[in-house]
Amino acid sequence: KEKIEITKEQQALMKIILDAYNRHQIPQDVAKKLLQDQYSAEENFLLLTEMATSQVQVLVEFTKNIPGFLSLDHEDQIALLKGSAVEAMFLRSAQVFSRKMPKGHTEVLEARIRKSGISEEFMTPMFNFYKSIGELHMVQEEQALLTAITILTPDRPHVKDQHAVERLQESMLDVLRKLCALQHPQEPQYFARLLGRLTELRTLNHYHTEMLTSWRMNDHKFTPLLCEIWDVQ
Ligand SMILES: Cc1cc(Cl)ccc1OCc1nc2ccc(F)cc2n1[C@H](C(=O)NC1CCCCC1)C1CCCCC1
Questions:
Q1: What angle separates helix 8-23 from helix 162-183, to the nearest 10 degrees?
Q2: Assessment of whether the complete model's pTM goes beyond 0.90
Q3: Atom 26 (ligand 1): residue with closest C-alpha?
């Protein structure tokens, strides 16, 4: 039985990532708001664009704290952020959706989201993803590392020095692998399941533009930042 050893520098890396992740949480109030009231498709769309805009800003701050990220080529830094923002949004949504809530709240939240204005055809893939994330019962460290790993995906469009990104991602993957082995000793496949979620996340990425443009309302307004990130308008 090999002894799994998280080195001192890996512990330091994990602490930096976790602190950054906890510092850069957008207010969890989107779930609370949705539980409080039923909104029109227009109000829900506005809520999404507000939450998404602040999430992107938070994501930039989180990313700047990933050791080594600011040493990457500057255009590659932008390409990584642009390429991962939607996936990070769905990952965040999944984490918000899967948080422990009082009895019956998750069902109300799901019902509100189903009636929010998003077209019916996207509900199944979106909730399948949320539930598969929920089933993992990730600890904070795993969530933070998974977000960092998503951002540091080398094969995003327009990334020039993929090897430099790969090296950063690999050091995150190594810490996550050890953490999973320590946190879930009975589940040797846990780490692989975690990475499998990133594949499911990419499929959601493909739907996002259509999810927005098919929102049951006309005249969809986006902030300039979201036009950059969401390939819309
Ligand atoms: C992320 C995303 C992208 C596209 Cl294209 C379409 C849709 C979407 O989120 C769906 C989605 N899944 C959710 C699960 C739990 C939850 F509390 C809110 C959720 N949302 C939307 C939301 O506020 N997401 C933000 C969460 C924080 C991080 C930034 C994003 C609300 C907007 C109001 C109408 C009901 C859906």
A1: 100
A2: yes
A3: 93
